[in-house]
Amino acid sequence: MDELKSENAVPLRQATLRDLPSSVEVPRYDRSALTPGIVHIGLGNFHRAHQAWYLHRLMQQGLALDWAIIGAGVRPADAAMRDRLAAQDYLTTLIELDPAGSATEVVGSMIGYVPIEEGNGALIEQMADPAIRIVSMTVTEGGYYLNTGTNAFDVQHPDIVHDATNPDRPRTAFGAIVAALRQRRADGTGPFTLQCCDNLQGNGDVMRQTVVGLARLSDPDLASWIDESCSFPNAMVDCIVPATGDAERELVRSIGVGDAAPVTHENFRQWVIEDKFCAGRPPWEEVGVTITDLVHDYETMKLRILNGGHQLIGNPGELLSVRTISDCMSDPEIGAFFRKVASTEIVPHVHPVPGMTPLEYVDLIDRRFSNPRIVDTTRRVAFDGSSKRASQLHGSLRDGLAAGTPIDGLALADAMWARMCLGKREDGSEIAPNDPNWDTLTVAAQAAVDDPGAWLSQRGIYGDLADAPRFAEAFAAQMARIDTVGVRGALRAYLDG
């Protein structure tokens, strides 16, 4: 039956929604009546399964019909996504995968996608439209032009230098934002809210630093206006959303839908936002979004336990040739390693939030990571450790050093990361480059084989952690243990300790 559905899959279009299988939930609202209110830059799987879904749920209730999303990107690769989505009227099929069952729905809250072009003129024009009241963004942790280690705005990055000297033909999303705000101020149409949806501590503050910092390089008066007039709410976003490949495309076809860009996701979402919107917002609280001033506590819990947990298991998973995160959790050493480090070295430094203690959150993440229907690869999770480490693991390490609590598991996690950056698994197979700074990391990893301090001397990653004797000693000891008994032996020694 599934093979027949796959062969007869209905191409996803607005005109074919009524022809889709009855098991697929489709938009009940009139999409032709939607008007834009949000430009989202960096329109990947996560945004479509998370922010776009929340807006879709509002629209299903007849709300927020003037807040539809216009997608945007600034990389040449974004053009391919635009073409795929345009061909299906910007509709996306979401497939929820859970051990208890699955559900499929088509999300229709996106109604357009700005052309990708040099100089970003179309993007600037779209954001300058008075109808746009929120510009949101998912460009990954490494996309905010921060100096690694200090997290200060990198004014010397070539992209930033270009945009500061060519403000009318910017290369970056932030340059386009500054140009659009310049036009809005001149036209008297007012500011918009800038909403970061990436996994960064104080992500709204980071967004403010980058946008205002870039504006200041070319127009200090405009920078002051942006700083005073625009709002940058901090937020925490959460949903595990794997990458889409052939298996996911075949899955959606087996359901009876011909979607070139489907998205699979877990049966869990969370969005916590500060209520700081200078030009209004959709009533997100009506569909389960938490509006609170306690965003910092929520984001600390999530970044350190969920995202930090990904870092704990992704590296040994790669080294031991364990392909997916759920496989890592069923591995007797890797799964136990996550629970012990999270419970004894991370939880002591995390505050509870309403309705959830840190240990209860560890249990929740254990269940979510263990979902075998979510095919989230260790390679995806282990990507870009040089950007993720500081916000996701090193905060716990710093707190542990300050409080005198255990740090051996965190030291082992970094030792396994260093070993992964040598580019070889324990079975001898090659680990392809998996970090924007891979070449630099590989050189440091090779030097650390004989001198562990060479790895910690990467000041851009470790900062003053390199000067902490207790961490340096623990890291060196774990490196030596990996050399002696291998990754699995080092994990067992930690678990038995």
TrEMBL record:
InterPro entries: 6-PGluconate_DH-like_C_sf, 6PGD_dom2, Mannitol_DH, Mannitol_DH/Oxidoreductase, Mannitol_DH_C, Mannitol_DH_N, NAD(P)-bd_dom_sf. Keywords: Oxidoreductase. One of its GO terms (molecular function) is oxidoreductase activity, acting on the CH-OH group of donors, NAD or NADP as acceptor. The keyword Oxidoreductase applies. Residues 37-285 form the Mannitol dehydrogenase N-terminal domain. It comes from the Bacteria. Residues 295-482 form the Mannitol dehydrogenase C-terminal domain. It holds the Pfam family Mannitol_dh. PANTHER family: MANNITOL DEHYDROGENASE 2-RELATED (PTHR43362:SF1), MANNITOL DEHYDROGENASE DSF1-RELATED (PTHR43362). This is Mannitol 2-dehydrogenase. It comes from Jannaschia seohaensis.
